[in-house]
Amino acid sequence: QVQFVESGGGSVQPGGSLRLACSASGFTFSAYAMTWYRQVAGKERESVATIGNRGIIIRYEESVKDRFTISRDNVKNTVYLQMNSLKPEDTAVYYCKRLQYDDSWGQGTQVTVSS
Predict the structure, then answer these.
(1) Which of 2, 48, 98, 108 could form a disulfide with 36 if both were Cys (CB 3.0 to 4.6 A apart)?
(2) In this structure, what is the dihedral angle of CA atoms 42, 69, 77, 111, given to the nearest 10 degrees?
(3) What's the number of CA atoms in the CB half-sphere (13 Å) around residue 88?
């Protein structure tokens, strides 16, 4: 059973940093590209960053370029999202999932950026 467990969210002031982690199980993690998504209440979920199975960055959403960094550890079956220079508009629930697979979503981790 494919599962994703996101963690690391919290409340920070604008300009602050957070590091999210997503632990994956139920599949051969090292064989798949992974994507971080986020969703604001009442809006559609959007992709934020994607990393290839061997660590090559595939894309960042335009608004997070130069502020967010996606990475992965294929030994720990974990994908990370380092978020710096956070803005109020980054407030959302963050999720991870395999790229282009119809997996069930995890519970997500809430990120709140507010002064």
Answers:
(1) 48
(2) -30
(3) 2
User: How confident is the prediction along the chain (115 residues), in pLDDT tens digits per residue?
Assistant: 999 999 999 999 999 999 999 999 999 999 999 999 999 989 999 999 999 999 898 899 999 999 999 999 999 999 999 999 999 999 999 999 999 899 999 999 999 999 9
106 in Cβ contact with 22 (< 8 Å): yes
Q: Is 47 helix (H, G, I), strand (E, B) or coil?
A: strand
What radius of gyration do the chain's Cα atoms show?
13
| Amino acid 100: pLDDT | 87
Q: How far is the C-alpha of 30 from the C-alpha of 11, rounded, in Å?
A: 31
